[in-house]
Amino acid sequence: MTFAEKVYEAVKKIPRGKVTTYKEIGRLINSKGYQAIGQALRCNPYAPIVPCHRVVASDLSLGGFMGKKEGRSIKRKIALLRAEGVEINGGKVVKSSLWQESQNK
Prior knowledge:
By secondary structure, the protein is mainly alpha-helical.
C-alpha cells in the first residue's frame, strides 16, 4: 500500500459531521509527515468517498482544501463541513466536532 493509499484509508474512517487533524491521520498511519499527508489529500482522486474536507489543522483552523488556504476552495470546504453539521466559529472548527479513532474503540 502506498503512502497516499494509507492516508485515504485513514480518512475514510472519519464519520460525517466530524473532523480530525493531519496529526491524527499521521498517528493512524504511523507517520509524522503531516505536510505529505496534506499533499496526498490535495491530490485525492476519490473525493467524496475519501472525505478530505474533514481534515483540519491541529489548532482546529481549517487548513487547506484543494491545494488552497483561502478563497473559493476554503469557502467550499466550509460549506461541505456545515452541510454535514460541523460547527465553525471564527475560522475554526468547534472542538465538539473533533473525532479521534480511539473514541471508537
